[in-house]
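Appendix B. Worked example

We walk through a single record from start to finish. Start with the input: the chain for AGAP007730PAlike, Caligus rogercresseyi, length 143.
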Amino acid sequence: EWLDTLSTINPGEVTFTDYVEAGNMLAKELKHRGCDIVIALTHMRTPNDIRLAESVTGIDLILGGHDHVYENKKVNGINILKSGTEFRNFSLITVDFSQEPMAIEIERVDVTSKYDEEPELKERLSKFQGNKKGSGRNDLGKN
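Next comes the structure step. The output line below is what the pipeline stores for this chain.
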């Protein structure tokens, strides 16, 4: 239904496969090829991730986006994780394959100033900082 809202795309020129249909096909293929874990990387709203968890056999973990909130819930035995926005949070995911079924543990980590800057990472990211400095701070008009 969202394709109809896009003015630059003619829905008649796009092949659309329902994500549940695609999820079932891909999860089955990955398990057939011997994958130990199937992780769905999505960029859908939570209700669509819930539908995916309820409708697809073979997905072990859903890592979602789009909603810009931190959310961790289990639906139909499948963890659905959305790790927030603006790098305010991240998640440490531990998978224990020695259990049957495998155990997935998710720990939320809030990114705060209590963590020291990591010098090597700071240096690597510095080349991107110039693009943001001053962004949005230009006068658009004067009274």
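Two observations about the output. The two ends are 45 Å apart (CA to CA). The chain has a mean pLDDT of 88.
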